C-alpha cells in the first residue's frame, strides 16, 4: 500500500509523529525536513524533535523561534540552528534536551539519555504529550488554522 504524504492529508488524518511537519509546512516550503518527530515503535530511542530547513526562511525563523519560546506546555521548548550539519538546519525540541546536547558528557558518547538520566523517559513521554498543544499554539500564533501545507519548491 502506498503511503499518502502529509501534504495531501486532511488535518484529522495526521498522526502525532508528523503533526509538527504538517503544521510548520503551512508557514513555507521546506528545503529539507525530517517528517517524523519520534519513533512510534520505540518512543525512547531519541527524544522528540523536529528537524527542518525552509527553502526561503529569512525572518520567519526568528518569528517561529519567538513563538516556540512563548509556548506554555508541560515542558519548555527551544528552536535553534544545529551545530552538526553542513547546512543551517533548525531543530525544535524540549529545552532540556537542547541543553543536554551542549554538555561535555554528551560529546563523549553523543548519548542524551546518559546526560538526562532519570529525566530521560519523562521528557520523551511528556514531549509527545506536548506536540498537539504546541502545534495548536503555532497555528494560533500565525493564524494558520484553516491553511494547507505549502508544497516543496522544485529547483
Q: Can you walk me through this structure?
A:
This protein has 155 residues and is α+β, with helices and mostly antiparallel strands. The chain is 37% helix and 13% strand. It has six helices and four strands, in the order αββαββαααα. It has helices at 19-24, 60-70, 95-100, 104-109, 112-116, 120-142, and strands at 30-34, 50-54, 77-81, 90-94. It is globular. The two termini are 29 Å apart.
In short:
The chain is an alpha+beta fold and 155 residues long. The chain has 6 helices and 4 strands.
Q: Could you outline the blueprint of secondary structure elements for this entry?
A:
Elements: H1 19-24, E1 30-34, E2 50-54, H2 60-70, E3 77-81, E4 90-94, H3 95-100, H4 104-109, H5 112-116, H6 120-142
Antiparallel strand pairs: 1-2, 2-4, 3-4
Supply the helix-strand structural class: alpha+beta
Give the termini separation. 29 Å
- Give the percentage of residues in beta strands: 5-15%
Give the beta-strand count: 4
Runs in which pLDDT lies below 50 for 5 or more consecutive residues are: none
Strand order of the largest sheet: 1-2-4-3
* Overall geometric form: globular
Please count the helical segments. Answer: 6
> Mean pLDDT, rounded to whole units?
91
Order of helices and strands: HEEHEEHHHH
Instruction: Summarize the amount of helix as a percent range.
Output: 25-40%
Largest sheet: 4 strands, antiparallel
